[in-house]
Amino acid sequence: MKRILLALPLAAFVVLSAYFAIGLQRDPSKIPSVLIDKPLPQFDLPAIEGFEKGFSSGDLKGRVALINVFGSWCASCVIEHPVLMEIAASGDVLIAGLDWKDEKGAGSHWLQKYGNPYSLIGDDADGRTAIDLGVTGAPETFIVDKNGRIRYKQVGPIDRRIWREELRPLVEKLERDGADGD
Amino acid sequence: MIAEFGQFALILAMLAALLQGTFPFAGVARGDFALASIGRSAALAQATLVALAFACLTIAHATSDFSVLNVVQNSHTAKPFIYKLSGVWGNHEGSMLLWILILAVYGAAVAINARDDAPALTAQVLGVQGLVAFAFIAFILFTSNPFERIFPAPADGADLNPLLQDPGLAIHPPFLYLGYVGFSVTFAYAIAGLLQKRVDADWAQAVRPWALAAWVFLTIGIALGSWWAYYELGWGGFWAWDPVENASFMPWLAGTAFLHSVRVVEKRDALKVWTVLLAILAFSLSLIGTFLVRSGILTSVHAFAVDPARGVFILAILGVVIGGSLTLFALRGAFLTTQSTFQPVSREGAILLNNVFLVTACATVFIGTFYPLFVDIVSSERLSVGAPFFNATFLPLMAALLFVLAPGAALAWKKGDIKSGLAQLFPAMAAGVAGAVIALWLTWPKPVAAALGAGLAVWAIAGTVTDIARRTKVFSVPVRDSLTRLGGLPRSYVGMSLAHFGLAIVALGVLGAGVWRTETVRLMQIGDVVAVGAYEARLTEVVHSEGPNYVTEVAQFEILKGGRQVREMSAERRFYPVRGMQTTEAAIWTTLAGDVYLTLGEESQVGGWAVRAFFNPLVIWMWIGSGIIALGGVVAAGERAFAPRGRRISTASTTAGATV
How many angstroms separate the CA atoms of B278 and B267, rounded? Predict the structure, then answer.
């Protein structure tokens, strides 16, 4: 009996390290989200300060879209921002933004300062929608197809290479695919 | 040249660590203590070589040698000199080198302080330290070389993260590391004790000062980290239950439990298996703390080296160190037998209860930190565990701990008398109730639980003071005699009382800053006034100016009380162009009653600035209390230095040769 008790910590550790080993395989920035190929969760977010229109999941109906989760407090978002501006300028895809856990007005000031790549912006001040989307940190980027299904998730900033080599080809493919009526 | 020199020193240090990690074991196994004592020389050599390597990296940073990649990535010519120095450990590679340096210095300290009365124990302790050092130096050399060159050398560097450009950072990681790594000595003692099947009063006396040293540093490190978050991050909070904060807190909880139970080993020859397990846990959690930050396994605002390849290397080290030690524990634990009987109502009984609370609290933090990861793996569902979880689970445990603290400390070893103990504590109980009522009256309608918490803190403080009064017979003998008695109290008792007192003070500060604070967010024009606690803050002007490597917007506030100006304060928002980052410098006015805390937000399109105004009661008591806790540890650690040395000569040398 005593031997079993003494071996318990070891057993617990073995289980834990198995978890860690699996966890390490899943680099958080590469894990395919569980939402991949699932429909985009329903949401209807209000506009951020100084904007007229909010952002609801219905707005994307029948369109391929890139949804970017950002926040004025997020340092990496500043790094990612120029890339989003370029994508917006190219007009390759509709960009929607989720202003995550921002203070009132902070998001709009931030966009005023750096420029606004988003055609639609929703204010997710309490972070509910981000939870539904399984967001673990900002920035995160989703690609949604014409049927409103999430097809891609990027954790961390997208850079020019990721856009060129992964996102743009995917967007082009999704545009060609069209809506299949299920 | 300097970088190559540093790298060479580090390679030699790795070899010295290998010697340190092998010869002592071979020597002890063969009963050849001359061979075993090579470990001591190796430990000193290793420390010298690592210090040289660290000095080389420091010189590279100080002179802005941009042919070294690490300097390019983390420095900039425009950076203030002091931050060029702190930049040495403000990055992954350099911080790992600091980790190794501290490990080597502890090793050298063990080698220097080693007494000849237990050569096998000392030798094996050094051996274990050598093996750990070898693994981590290899980790640095193979995955995180700070001396890597870059060609052609760029003209200037990429700057240090401005958030990390702060006096808090210059001192906070070294203290944390001194704490984390200090538990390697405790760990090494546990392993050596298991190898020799000998964990007794001598063992406990030998290990306790090291555990106290590690614990004091970790206490200071955590307090500084919290202080840094409060003053630098500008969100008005001091603790976010961020994984990296938890990572430093878990070894602290395990280490605190160890400090209590090791006393039972020393005094009552009991709880040995448990104490050894705690020593292993404290260091394992320290390693996991390092691991958490270094791999991408948990993303966090602190993670400045997200790199899975390094994570795999660290995982291997963790597997060997923790898995190996727990295997040894499973095999050898049964040999650590005890003869003494255990009474529930006694000091050791109270310490066991304390251990249950602390370890449960530690497990709670562990689960809260890792649960999201587990859930993700098991069910592919993502979630995050936030402050509400910790508040609901951790705080009640702390309340229970505060509740038993004073009566537990007042109980006698072996067999305590609960009735007379409670009778003595009656005034303290009354004080606690009064404290709760007063707190409720002052803070209404804030939560009642917080007022109860304040009552518990007052009870713990009063109980600690009552016990000192009892021991010094304050009211029954002349004052002079009481003072003599006070001076004659054992240092371990004084240290314990100070630490308990400090903990209760911290609890009051946490309640103030966490529960009783008030927060107002207001769009302010020049001349506008906002209420902050008992004060009012008037925005008088906002000016733009330039610092050495940033541009800044500074808001001037006038603090009024009853319409009269009592103070001027300025809050800042800085922008660092090289990194494109923004930081806030909160305006903070600290008083004993609480802090006036103002932060400046963005300028609004419609004119005016978003200003957040906090009144955070009792904040300063968190830092004062932490200081008292640490002081208690220092006082208690001093005890051994004054204890007669003869007592420790024991059976060590006769049994040592036959074991392993």
Answer: 18
B632: alpha, beta or left? (left if phi > 0; alpha if psi -120 to 50): alpha
- Measured between beta carbons, the chain B residues lying within 8 angstroms of A31 are 376
- Cα torsion through B621, B624, B625, B626, rounded to 10: 120
Task: Give the DSSP H/E element, type plus range, for residue A96.
Answer: strand A94-100
Q: Looking at this predicted complex, what is its ipTM?
A: 0.78
Which of A78, A57, A74, A72 is CA-nearest to residue A133?
Answer: A57
Task: DSSP letter for B614, please.
Answer: E
Closest CA of chain A from B384, distance in Å: 8
Q: Which amino acid is residue B113, in one-letter code?
A: N
Of B308, B580, B604, the CB nearest to A24: B308
Q: What are phi and psi of B205, to 5 degrees?
A: -65, -35
pLDDT tens readout for residues B554-566: 999 999 998 899 9
pLDDT tens column, B525-572: 999 999 998 899 999 999 988 887 788 999 999 999 988 999 999 999
Q: Which two tokens stand for residue B103?
A: 């490990």
Partner B, chain A 4-23, Cβ-Cβ below 8 Å: 6-7, 9-10, 13-14, 17, 19-23
Looking at CA atoms only, how far is residue A176 from chain B in angstroms? 31
Closest CA to B578 of A107, A156, A78: A78
pTM, entire model? 0.79
Q: Helices B92-113 and B167-196, interaxial angle, to 10°?
A: 50
CA distance B597 to A37: 47
